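Summary: Need help interpreting a holo structure output

Steps to reproduce:
1. Submit the protein chain below together with the SMILES for flavin-adenine dinucleotide.
2. Request a joint structure prediction with the ligand placed.
3. Inspect the structure token block that comes back.

Expected: a single structure record containing both the chain and the bound molecule.
Actual: see attached output.

Input attached:
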Amino acid sequence: MRKLDLRTGKPVWLSYRSPRIPEESLESSITTDVLVVGMGISGAMTADLLSQAGHTVVMIDRRGASLGSTPATTALVQHEIDVPLARLRHAIGAEKATRAWRRSRLAVANLRDRIAELDISCRMSDRPTLYLAGNVLRGKALRGEAELRAAAGLSARYLTASELRSGFGLEREGAILSTGNLALDPVKLTAGLLDRAKARGARLFAPEEAVDIRYRRSSVDVHTRSGYVISAGHVVLATGYELMDMVDDDRHEIISTWAIATRRQPKQALWPSEALIWEASDPYLYLRTTHDGRVICGGEDEDFQDEARRDALIKEKTERIVGKLAKLLPAIDPTPEFAWAGSFGNTGTGLPLIGPVPGKPRILVLMGYGGNGITFSRIAAELIDTTLAGGEDADADLFAL
Ligand SMILES: Cc1cc2nc3c(=O)[nH]c(=O)nc-3n(C[C@H](O)[C@H](O)[C@H](O)COP(=O)(O)OP(=O)(O)OC[C@H]3O[C@@H](n4cnc5c(N)ncnc54)[C@H](O)[C@@H]3O)c2cc1C
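--- attached output ---
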């Protein structure tokens, strides 16, 4: 089983108090309708929907709830896929690309509704997003991208340099303004979802590791580190970027990224509506505020996985992110109070891979969800919920392994 050093440094979320959801120790072999491997934000969203649908759910995690990549996320929950709509149309065709973008928008809306319905306190707030002109898209191309998005029914409006300056105080040649995205605390959200799943009977075991999977005709036997067997009708591998060796797909790669959080800023130093901001650049910069006025800023992605190299770069990448942040927002104090690095999975299309493992329909996975991991985790939870109910999600083909 692959084990990665998923993150290094201190993510800001670990400085806020989150409820601890009690976990049990596995002390015998058990059977269940569904075993979810992984108690990060993806496993939590899946367990929430599956337990709501009436399945018996067991979860295991080799570390514990929210101890993998989940606390490393900067948690800009956006429908905008990393690959612009114009480029995705070119890569997979206009119909599929439009459907992927629309599904992404629907997933953010569904997530917002679910959090409200369950009354989970995770400091969720609605945020517009600014996608700033950069070396990937600028000028006519950026304006064209806004028009394509708007024509697909997605919220998107092109802002000229002067509109951007007067509306948001930012200096760039243009931007796309969209609405309907979210900022939230990912650790609190994960705890809230696990709590609700637990109240419906889900059982959470940690630390407990899946070390071997044996596929049978009518069940899957997952052998654990402590020597027991969990026999499940279906297994969901919500193992984040630590894919099980049995799942291989050459469309997927692991890359490295860096983030910082500043000290609390006075309200007047922040920008109007505290929009989520990201750049149409490579490498890109993305930022948001927290409920208490910190600015979280990340980016500087590099196409390698080597964790030692990633960690050795924290100081240099922090300086670079701080420099870019200071240039973009001269009114804030960009001194970092938190700095961290993490790995994440990516695909060339920016779309995740979700669904049954070919030839092993009782095992469902999600992988390759990069900068929009949280939105894609919600799509995965919905797809898996529909599959286990015997249906077929209308967009399953977009994400199939
Ligand atoms: C710096 C950074 C910034 C990011 N910013 C954003 C952002 O702004 N917006 C966004 O949407 N996404 C963002 N992401 C991506 C986001 O963090 C991920 O999509 C998300 O955290 C993945 O959650 P997960 O539950 O799938 O994985 P994890 O949180 O890693 O959970 C997987 C769990 O599986 C467990 N596990 C693995 N293998 C086994 C096994 N064999 N047995 C038992 N347990 C196992 C692990 O211990 C882990 O706890 C960012 C990522 C990073 C690193």
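--- end attachment ---

Reviewer comment: The chain has a mean pLDDT of 93. The first strand starts at residue 7 and ends at 9.
Status: needs-info
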